[in-house]
Amino acid sequence: MEKSTEKKNGAGTHAGKEGPEASGGSQSRMEAEGERFLKTLSALLEKYMPEPRRKALENLAEQGRRLLSQANKSIEENTGRVVQRLNIPTRQDFEEYNKKLDTATRKLRENMGAGVKRGLNRLHVATSSEVEDLARAVGRLREEVNALSKRTSTRKKAAAPTSA
User: Fold this and answer.
1) Which pTM does this prediction carry?
2) Contact assessment for residue 49 and residue 60, using Cβ atoms and an 8 Å cutoff
């Protein structure tokens, strides 16, 4: 029976709110329970209590409602003040920060991407396939140098006069 009362009175519908409003679900439940209690009490009093006493209790119940309403307002105001004094960011603040961060990140990536491309073009950085081609060419040059060096050394030996 408690669940149906909560659904009728809208408890649990404050999930999207922030700050003092976020505690509205429990306040709504408290108010609903209080109202239900007062209605039940009023029905019992009508049956079993004489008119003058019943009127006095109804006045007392009305004063209780007003006091509860004032207490709820006071709680909301005090909660709001505490949140402001402690400088606690609200959900809206976080959403704004996230938007700003997303924008800054996007701009940074765009600028970095363009800067990296310009830098690579200035440096004329080789690709991995170009580096592999260059390594093969260097290897062939070494082989040719070694071959030339051998030919040169054998020619020098042949051209050198024999003294003995």
Assistant:
1) 0.31
2) no
- Say if residues 22 and 3 touch (Cβ distance below 8 Å): no
CB 68 within 8 Å of CB 31? yes
* Alpha-carbon Rg for the chain in angstroms: 44
* Best CA proximity match to 15, nearest among 88, 89, 91, 77: 91
Compute the distance between CA of residue 135 and CA of residue 148 in angstroms, rounded to an integer.
20
What pLDDT band is residue 11 in, cutting at 50, 70 and 90?
very low
> In angstroms, rounded to a whole number, what is the distance separating the alpha carbons of residues 80 and 71?
14
Residue 5: both structure tokens together: 């009362």
Q: What is the pLDDT of residues 28-82, one digit of tens each?
A: 788 888 888 878 877 877 777 777 777 887 788 888 888 888 888 888 888 888 8
Q: Which stretches within the chain are classed as H helix?
A: 2-9, 24-48, 51-85, 91-123, 128-159
Reduce the DSSP state of residue 161 to 3 states and report it. coil
Domain ranges of the chain: 2-93, 102-158
* Tokens encoding 162: 């024999």
Which residue matches tokens 């949140």? 83
